[in-house]
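go over my protein:
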Amino acid sequence: QVQLVESGGGLVQAGGSLRLSCVANQKISSINTWAWYRQAPGKQRELAASITYSGTTNYADSVKGRFTISRDSAKSTVYLQMNSLKSEDTAVYYCNFLTHYAVNYWGKGTLVTVSS
């Protein structure tokens, strides 16, 4: 079955940067939206960033201007470049691929901890 493999999480100081990667173990056809969700301690999961097949991006207000999402359709890979990290960015980050036929693929999550 399809598995999403995430990497890049870890501990970083406030103001630093991290780049998250998520790649499928096999080619996935008809991906409509690539996205990164996050769940901070004690909070509900939220959409941090997404990018559509056409390249349209969407960001949560809290990360706008600091995070950049990108994808490689041919490789079924999505990235999240995170700059100027803040302690409130601490969360488990999950990648998600949504196909045109409403099939969801989820990563297991990677922990990002930003120290102040």
